[in-house]
Amino acid sequence: MEMQDDEATASHNQKKYSSRVLFIATEMGNTEFIIELIRTYPDLIWNLNDSKQSIFHAAVLHRQEGIYNLLYGIGSMKDFVTPLIDVDGNNMLHLAAMSAKNKRLHEISGVALQMQRELLWYKEVEGMLPPSYQEKKNKAGLLPHEMFTKDHKDLMSASEKWMKDTASHSMVVAALIATMVFGAAFTVIGGYNQNDGLPILRNDGAFTVFVLSDAISLTIASISILMFLYILTSRYAEQDFLESLPKKLMKGLATLFLSIAAMTVAFSISAFYNDRVGWMVLVIWVFAAVPVVLYARLQYKLLGEVYRSTYGSKNLFKQVKPEFVHR
After folding, report:
1. Contact 285, 268 (CB under 8 A)
2. What one-character DSSP code corresponds to residue 186?
3. By residue range, what is the domain housing residue 55?
4. How far apart are the C-alpha atoms of 152 and 237, rounded to whole Å?
5. How far apart are CA 101 and CA 41, in angstroms?
6. Cα gap 99→110, rounded to integer Å
7. Tens place of pLDDT for every residue, the chain, 327 residues?
8. What residues contact 260, with CB distance under 8 A and at least 6 apart?
9. How many independent structural domains does the chain possess?
10. CB-based contacts of 191, cutoff 8 Å, min separation 6
11. Are residue 165 and residue 62 in the same domain, yes or no?
């Protein structure tokens, strides 16, 4: 009997230790370890921490999407886990409404994209829970959306400032390019024929490339200006940071890059006509490409982040089926 009691105590202590490890791993985002742990101890999926939160509630609180996605792999059991309320009266949507830890936010460059990620989490959990949970208050008397607005007030303000600064600085560059290529359109290479007023080099293939590049640069720069103008005059509501503003920013930066590239082509053609010495033209073309390459390197990370955060967000929450729970 004594031996059985000792075995029972050892088993209990082991499960208790495993439960603590489970929540530590959840906070750290160690998905593979959690899957293996629950395969060994399937009942751990029902364990709660000191705040009466399941691992999925903790995953939402700590923004660990890899662990949260395991909800899709437990089938109908998720309907018994997701409605749980913690000691402060918070449901899972309240936890999604709380501001993420700085460590998780700093993994995303650009505070506006951090705000977007927070909105993505809120929308995902909102879709997971029954609609009635959106109108449930916690012990502090706050609805989930009220808590979201309260906890993200500073991030919202910083996001608006970041978006406006980025748009205004980029808009200055786009306006400068539009001014230069507009002037170049009336300063035709080779001049005009005094008899009919048409460009002398109008039948030259390189001249055609120059005209097209100049026109494309002007048009795309104008589109870029409009994108940035939209950002500057936006109402800056919370929902605007989910898709509207990030998409406009990405389009503005992309069109600005294309405008710079087209302007560089037009400048290179102009250099070809002004100096037919081969090596000198080659040197001019190499240096003309520097702004394009430099802009691409400087803005590539930001463009990539905006694209992944906006168009790749559907891959953030995957309906995986790990089948780690033995029924």
Report:
1. yes
2. H
3. 2-151
4. 12
5. 29
6. 16
7. 444 444 444 444 444 555 678 888 898 889 888 888 888 877 888 889 988 999 999 999 999 999 999 888 887 888 889 999 999 999 999 999 999 887 777 778 789 999 999 999 999 999 989 999 999 999 999 999 999 999 999 999 999 999 999 999 999 999 999 998 888 777 766 555 666 656 665 666 667 888 888 899 999 999 999 999 999 999 999 999 999 999 999 999 999 989 988 988 888 777 666 555 556 666 666 766 777 777 777 777 777 778 777 877 667 887 655 555 544
8. 177, 217, 291, 292, 295
9. 2
10. 199, 200
11. no
Range 156-163 contact pairs with CB under 8 angstroms and sequence separation of 24 or more:
156/115, 156/238, 156/241, 158/111, 159/111, 159/112, 159/114, 159/115, 159/241, 160/112, 160/236, 162/110, 162/111, 162/112, 163/112, 163/231, 163/236, 163/245, 163/249
Please check whether residue 318 lies inside any domain of the structure. no
Q: Check whether residue 239 and residue 286 sit in a common domain.
A: yes
Asked whether residue 165 falls in the same domain as residue 143, the answer is no
Length of the chain counted residue by residue? 327
**Token pair of 242, please?**
């989910």
